[in-house]
Specification:
233 residues, alpha/beta, Rossmann fold, Arc Repressor Mutant, subunit A, 2 domains, 5-stranded parallel sheet, 4-stranded antiparallel sheet, 8 helices, Sig_transdc_resp-reg_receiver, WH-like_DNA-bd_sf
Length: 233
């Protein structure tokens, strides 16, 4: 389920939004000021942010600009400021949509779904996601849960290869061929074994195994279908 951060200082309005978001199948989390919002923003993963403009400890436009410098999480302004210049200012700050008060909650939910669908399709083209792993192909970064995961270039290529071939048994020869790049950087079978072992130790945990050894053949990406103890040979 998508996680939505609702930054709105009107507690009754925030509660009403949370109620309707939850009923629609989202996970809403309220924040009544920017200080709380900043703490939540940096400590958890978010799929969308609903943001008021006038907050007790700051301006929503400025905060949206800060968000956009560090993240591509979608932002929808929810505000009583309905002048054209206010909307322009919101979009210039990086907003994905702008909803004025008073509003119909059904319209808000439709606009949220539209933004999530639009941003989700864009992300799908540049991200590979499985279990608690998220690989950003354009930035060549990996996250495990909410934390960045440091991988060597060879480990990154291995992970990318596995994620792009879920469920398939990849022979050692096929994997070696994919890791031997156009610049002639060579990986032999012994090095492959070591790198798979290192990658497995970094990505697996009590919940996910991810990589299964197929003896005498190669490896299989089992994703989140099998837990530790069920095939991590």
């Amino acid at each position: 389920m998508e996680r939505i951060l609702i930054i709105e200082d009107d507690e009754m309005l925030n509660a009403g939004l949370c109620y309707n978001m939850q009923a629609a199948g989202y996970i809403p989390v309220p924040a009544y000021d920017l200080k709380t919002a900043r703490d939540l923003l940096h400590s958890q993963r978010w799929d969308l942010i609903l943001l008021d403009v006038n907050l007790p400890d700051g301006n929503g436009y400025a905060f949206a600009g800060q968000i956009r410098r560090d993240s591509d999480v979608p932002v929808i302004f929810l505000t009583a400021q309905d002048m054209d210049e206010d909307m322009v200012k919101g979009f210039e700050a990086g907003a994905d949509d702008y909803i004025t008060k008073p509003f119909n909650i059904k319209v808000v939910l439709q606009r949220i779904r539209a933004v999530l669908n639009r941003c989700g399709k864009a992300k799908a083209a540049e991200e590979l996601v499985c279990g608690n792993l998220r690989v950003n192909l354009s930035e060549m970064t990996v996250q495990k849960g909410n934390s960045p995961l440091a991988l060597t270039p060879t480990e990154y290529k291995l992970l990318k290869t596995f994620l792009q071939n879920p469920g398939q048994v990849l022979t050692r020869e096929i994997i070696l061929e994919k890791l031997w790049d156009s610049e002639g950087n060579f990986v032999d079978e012994h090095t492959l074994t070591i790198n798979v072992s290192r990658l497995r130790s970094k990505i697996s945990d009590a919940q996910y195994t991810y990589i299964k050894t197929v003896y005498g053949v190669g490896y299989q990406w089992i994703g989140d279908r099998e837990q530790i103890g069920g095939g991590n040979e």
